[in-house]
Specification:
alpha/beta
Length: 287
C-alpha cells in the first residue's frame, strides 16, 4: 500500500512541486503511467486530491489567458498571428514549458478562446530541468513524429547551471549548446516550412536560488546572456532576445520561490512577448 504524503509534503506539492511533476511525459512507456490512480499513488495523494491540484493549475492558466485578453494590445496582436486552422503547434522546452500553469498552456487557452472554430492541436513537449542535449535526444519522439506546423523552442536555462562542486564550468559548454540548438533548428525545418519560434531563457534571481534546498547549483546571468546571443543568430522569430520580460533587473514578483521558474505573472509576461513578437516583428531569414 502506498505511503501517504504528510501535511508538509502536501503543502510542498501544492505550492511548488506538482505543477512540474508531469512524469507521464518522461516515462511514457511505463506500465500504468496513464492511470491517474497510479500517478496519485506515486505522490502519496488520493486520486481526488491529485486531480484537484492539477485542475487548479489548469484553471490558473485559463484565468490568466482571460486576463491577458482584456488588454487591447493583446487582442489586436492575436488577430495578426500567423497560425492557420488545423495547425499543430508544439512547444519544446524545460520547466517553464512543462509547468501546468506555464506560458504554453496560457497561450493555448488564448488561441482556443479567440479562434474557437480553428481545430488547433497543441503538444506540450516541455520536460522539467531539461538541457538542450536532453531535449535533442527526445526530439523525434516528442516533436518531429507529430509533423508539426509550428515549433516553439524555450531551452538553454539548464545548460547554464554551475554545480556547486565545480563552479569553474557550466553543465554544458557553450559550443555544445550552440550545436544542439542548431541541430534542433535544422531538424524542425525538415518537417515544416514555417519558421521556428525561439523564446530566450528567462533571467534568474540569484538570492532566491541560493536559498532553495532542492537545488545544488548556481546560474550566472552572464552565461544566460551568451545563450541569448546564440539565439540572435537563428532564423525564425526571436522572443525577448535580451531576456528582459521579467523586469530589468528582474523582479521577484515574476518568479516562484526558487528564483528560476516564473510565477503565473511571469508566464503572462512571456505570453505577451510571444504574441507581440509574432504579430509585430518580421521573421529572421537565414544568413
Amino acid at each position: 500500500m502506498a505511503e501517504k504524503a504528510s501535511d508538509k509534503e502536501k503543502e510542498a506539492l501544492e505550492k511548488y512541486l506538482i505543477q512540474f511533476l508531469n512524469i507521464e511525459k518522461q516515462y511514457p512507456l511505463l506500465p500504468g503511467i496513464k492511470n491517474n490512480d497510479s500517478l496519485a499513488g506515486l505522490m502519496g495523494l488520493e486520486t481526488r486530491e491529485f486531480l484537484k491540484l492539477r485542475e487548479m493549475f489548469s484553471q490558473n492558466a485559463k484565468e490568466a489567458a482571460l486576463e491577458l485578453l482584456r488588454e487591447d494590445d493583446v487582442t489586436d496582436w492575436v488577430d495578426q498571428l500567423p497560425f492557420k486552422n488545423n495547425d499543430t503547434i508544439i512547444a519544446l522546452g524545460d520547466s517553464a514549458t512543462d509547468d501546468l500553469q506555464g506560458w504554453f498552456n496560457i497561450f493555448s487557452d488564448i488561441l482556443n478562446i479567440t479562434v474557437p472554430e480553428a481545430d488547433f492541436t497543441f503538444v506540450n513537449a516541455g520536460i522539467s530541468n531539461n538541457t538542450t542535449s536532453e531535449a535533442l535526444r527526445r526530439l523525434h519522439r516528442d516533436v518531429l513524429s507529430y509533423q508539426p506546423d509550428w515549433v516553439i523552442i524555450n531551452l538553454g536555462l539548464f545548460d547554464a547551471i554551475r554545480p556547486y562542486f565545480t563552479q569553474n564550468r557550466t553543465l554544458l559548454p557553450l559550443s555544445e549548446t550552440w550545436e544542439n540548438l542548431t541541430t534542433i533548428e535544422d531538424a524542425v525545418k525538415t518537417v515544416t516550412d514555417n519558421p521556428p519560434i525561439w523564446i530566450s531563457p528567462q533571467p534568474i534571481i540569484p538570492g532566491l536560488l541560493s536559498e532553495m534546498e532542492l537545488f545544488d547549483f548556481d546560474i550566472d546571468e552572464k552565461d544566460l546572456s551568451q545563450i541569448r546571443q546564440i539565439l540572435l543568430g537563428k532564423s525564425g522569430y526571436i522572443v525577448d532576445p535580451l531576456g528582459r520580460r521579467m523586469g530589468n533587473p528582474p523582479e521577484a514578483w515574476y518568479f516562484l520561490s526558487d528564483g528560476i521558474n516564473p510565477s503565473l505573472s511571469g508566464h503572462v509576461n512571456t505570453v505577451r512577448e510571444l504574441i507581440k513578437t509574432l504579430a509585430t516583428t518580421k521573421e529572421r531569414k537565414p544568413e
